[in-house]
What we know:
By secondary structure, the protein is α/β, with parallel strands linked by helices. 35% of the residues lie in helices and 14% in strands. The longest helix is centred in the first third of the chain and has 15 residues, at 60-74. It binds fe (iii) ion.
Amino acid sequence: xLKRASIGLMSLALAVWITGCSEQESPAPEGSKGxxxxxxxDAKPATANGEIVVYSSRKEHLVKPLFxxxxxxxxxxxxxxxxxxxxxxxxxEAEGERTPxxxxxxxxxxxxxxxxxxxxxxxxxxxxxxxxxxxxxxDPENRWFGLSVRARTIVYSTExxxxxxxxTYENLSTGDWEGRLCxxxxxxxxxxxxxxxxxxxxxxxxxxxxxxxWVDNLATDVFPNDTSLMEAIVAGQCDVGIVNTYYFGRLQxxxxxxPLALFWPNQQTSxxxxxxxxxxxxxxxxxxKLALQLLEWLSEGEAQAMFAGLxxxxxxxxxxxxxxxxxTWGEFKADDLNVAVAxxxxxxxxxxxxxxxxx
Length: 359
Ligand code: FE
């Protein structure tokens, strides 16, 4: 369903009803090509007054308030669809030059990197984006830019774990954590990106030892999502896990006394693994200038605070204040690798996890 961001305007019908998104708590339909292949001709052609079309794998409730605000402020009409990463990229690719999409918003640098590699995004020159988005969080070739930062960190039971016994991602592979670790499936891009950065830091051989150690320490089967993993810790199935910070935030919001806490690992070494959600102007955008205007708008001021705050993430723009609840988790040293590593080493990471028996 192609939807209007501005309230009161009728939604436009597409041949295929598209639902879901990568930010939902279900495993991404890996490579599910063929789902969302409504021909581009079904989408309303862009209007003369410059309507922008956005494809977003970020959930509707996280982007719609921003789109409405953008239209209010600029008078530029905006339509969008939301879907999971796989189908959305497949759709863009299938539509090719006929795509109505001007801007792609998606999560994880691994996905943005893939989109760029498939030729679905175009490079842009923007001093605004260079100023607002740290170099670490943008494509070295300027085809995508981070808009929010999430940390993938250690979560532990405050009832059974003393935080001083925790130290690094690597340490979770030692005998100290035998039968005490929970992990999400290796099929999720978030874990692929984490392992990709470990390969970048340690090389494949050492990383495989680490991942094998994790697998040896597993208390139970891998989980389909971060939330069920944390619920297992609360239930006593395991004591520690690795999750994205905003999923912890959601549980904490519902239950402020949940017996879980975040731990910032690798503070003496590489820093906490961080990743982004972000966006890029599509290769065949009909309104590349307006798409860039929207992208720049999202990178600063209140839009930045909203983009991050709505999902309890960190604004990518260091000038923008962090959400009050997120702030209570404390400051940490983050890994300073360019997040593009997540994409570059994704295939290697997937193969390594497979060899290590991480399902
Ligand atoms: Fe997520």
